[in-house]
Every structure is written in structure tokens, then in C-alpha cells.
Please model this.
Amino acid sequence: VAATMAGRVEMIAAFLGLAVLLSIIRLMFSSSRVSTVASPTLGMLAEPSADARALIEELRLLRSDISALQTSLRPGSGSIAGADAPAQLQVPLATTPEPQQVAPMIVEGKHDGSLLLAVITNPAHIAERALVRQFYKDTFADDISSGRVRVVFVVGRNYYLGNPPKPMPQTVKEVIQKVMVEAKQEGDIVWVDGRENLPHVGKATEKSAAWWQTAPSLGNYGYYCKSDDDSLIHISRLRRDLEAAGESVLYGYVAFRGWKPNYKFQACGIDARPSAVEQALHGVDMHRDENCSDSVGPFPYAGGNLVCMGSNLSRQLAADPHFAGFVAKAHTRNDNGIKCHSPLECARQPFNVHMWHHEDAGISYNLFRSILRGGLRNVKVVKIQSWVHIQHWLRGDNLTLPIPLVVIHNLKGLKQLQNVTADWRTDLGPWEYEDEKIVCSRCDDKGWGWKWSRTCCESDGDTCVRACDVDPNDTYMCCTKQFPSWVMDRLRQEEAARTIADKAARAAKEKAKKAAKEAAAAKVAAAKVAAASPTGSGTAANSGATLALPPSAGG
Model:
């Protein structure tokens, strides 16, 4: 029966493919297919006529139908409950996927606050996932149970075994079996076409890219987000922020970066100020000894602890063939790569063998160029604030303060996760709207200063044929999440008290250390005196005598 159904589905797919071909032919020979319009960022662009737009929409619907059929024929492809998905993990080395030959397009997403949050996770972190899963279910029960928010855990479908490949370790096989059981029980594991155990410091680059390519196929959500299993998110605050920001949004702890195109897979320049990255791209790097004059940017970069995209941005990126080609080339580089163990060591590898290890910078670069190519407008970049909205590492006293934290990052190990899930006062707030609203302005305003950027306006894949300058204000709006005015004063007070306490603790430690050193010196001196004593017993303790200095002259 299954074979018969599969045969029927394949036949339907063939007919749909023929329909696509006929539509393409009609599009090619349609009269007045395009009209030329001026783009302020990319020069002259072709705008489809009404007939052509109708045919393009027809192609889009056919492509969607074929994609759904292909998904049904491909076992375990991104299936939340696909416990049989990791069978490919037994393959010694994953094959490099072919680029997805789909033209980029602007796709209207769902206009509501629904949210799909992915947690990029190490397969071996079974206990950590159980704790995070229960924390979200217990703490944000209304959001989870209503279906407004769905949390999934992303695991690579394959495992990198070296170059040349080595047998898969037994410990890895055992972990895989445990994850398969977990997937069947929990139904929230997403298997993606990325490999675990990559040979460089960017361990999650393939998984992260595969997530953004897969996310829109997992359901029609208003927003798609990515986090890591060393972070915890205040889901209710996040959802409220995204709803307030609107559909076309990139949300997170935002800085600016540059990127070397031409498949060099290397970020260049980073700063909270786009002007500093601009200087780096003009040959003056304020941070490190590197030449960024061959780079594009500055572009907004959201750190991997929490990145959210509106539905239209996420779908734009997932459908971009340039992104697919970038990822495929990165897979090939990893296949043939030379293992490196530190960011500096990886960065120093020759560009012709350089592997992609700047995970979030690479994703942000691809999103930047996809947004420009797609002609999107009014894309809001929303920045959350350090220590008020994002805690970069565990500071336990902040968990109970009335501050509007959205994400706590860099929780290393099960113990720290347990501490946060037990102590975080997530019930505090919300505050007045004016205290937490998202304020947007032109990106070249004083607070941001993003006036200029450079992109590849003519390219073949990631090969930059011609670069050109663009005005970010034609595409982006720059936004900041506000916070109650008293929060920073409270944090300063807490920091001052913490500084005083730390200083007192260091002084007490130094005093104890000095006292111990003086006691040790006195003991050594006493031992020397005892050894020199005419009693011959060697020590005062052994002789039972009390040592006394002879009286001074005249005394």
C-alpha cells in the first residue's frame, strides 16, 4: 500500500513539474513581461508586469505544492516527531547538499504574534534539554499551551567523522539512540541537514544554517527565533516585543560587522558602532590587525544567544539560492578542512581552504544581502540592552531584581541552568508600555550613526563581481527597546554594592594570606632557633624548653 501511495505521489509531482515547465515557457514568451524601475540602493531593476506577476504567483503556488510532496516522500526531513530521521547519522561522512535553485522572492508571512523558537543543542545535553523544556512549559504555560509559542530543539542529522573519515565512536552511537528515544517521547526534536562535531570552532554553523533554511517549512508563524542550549529566554517578554515591533524585524543583541565575500568565509570588523566597522572597511581597524578593505558591510549582526526574524525575513532568507550556494560551499570546505582549535588559528588558514566558523556573522551577512536583493523596505533592527534585557553570564543577584530581562546567556553546565530555573523571578512586570516600548528612528540618527554600507550589487553566488555603496536608510529603520528609567539607577546601585563587597572580600583574602605567610615565616624562624639550641633536642617542642632571648647589654 505504501509503495502504491508513493507511486501516486510521484506521478502527481511529475504532473506538477510539467505544469511548472509550461508556466515558465509562458513567462518567457509573455509580452511586456517587465518594466524598468529605479531602485535607490541597487540601480535599475526589472519590475514584472501584471501578466508576469500572475505567472510568478502561479509558479510560487506550484513550487509550494511540489515542496510539500517532496517533504512527504523524504523520511524524517525536518519532522518534529521523525524519530527515524537520524538513520543518516550512521553514514561515515555526510554528502554535500546541492544548492536550492529557487529564486528569492518576497513572501508575506503570518501577521500575528505566534513564535517558533529553536534551541540549537548538543545531542549529548539530554539532561539540559529536559530542564529547559520543563522550565518553558511550567513558566510560560499560557504561551505554550495556547500554541502562540512553540519551542523545538535542533539536532544535526549527520555527524562529521574527520578527513579521511573514521569509524563512529560507540559513545556517539549511544547518544544518538538516546536522542531518538527522546524525540519519540517529547515530539520536539528537529533533525536538520547539518553535521555535529565540525572540525573548527564554529561547531553549530551547519546546524544554524540548516535551521534558517528549514524553519518556514515547519509551520506558518509570525516570527522565527534561534537560541542556544546555554541560554534561557523570557518567552512572554520576547513575544510582546516582537508583536510591538511588527512583521519586518531583526531582533536581538545587535552589533555591526563586515564580511569578506568570494567564499572567504571570514568576518571582518565588529563594533556596536557602525562607524567603527565602516572605518575598518576603509582600511583602519580599531580592534585588531586585519585588512577589511575587501569586505562588505557594515550590516546588523545579532548574537547567537537570541536571534529573531519576522516571517517575511525568514522566508526571504530560506528561499534565497545564494544562501543555499553559500551553505553548500561551506559543507564542501568542512569536508576537506584542516582542523583548527581557536578562532585565531581558524582565521589564519588560507582563504582557499578557509572554513565558515563565524556562525552568526555569516547568517547576518546572508540576511543583509538577501534583504537588499529582495528590495525589502522598512526592515526594523531592534536592539536589546546589555544587562537590562540580556545578561551575558550568570549574576545570581540579578535574577530577583525587578529588571526586564529577556535572555540570560552563557549558562555553562547543568548546575547553572538549575540555579536560574529555580531563582529567576520571571513574574516581575510587565511595566508601563512607555517604559518598555520599542523606539525607532532613521539609522543615521545620532544614537546609531549608520549612514553608509557597501554590498555586492553584481555577483555570481558569493563571488563579488562589482561592489557598490548603499544608503541603509533606504532599507532599514533602527530601533531600541526601552526600559524603566529607574532600572539603570538600581543596577548602578547594585553594581556599586557588589564592587564594595568584592573589594572587602579581596582585602580580607589578602589579609588572611599575609597572616598565613607571617605565621609560616615565624614557624621557620622558630625552627631555626630550636635547631641551633645547645640542648641538642633539635626543637623546642621536643625538649620541652621555653626559648628566651638573652638579656641585652646593660639590661
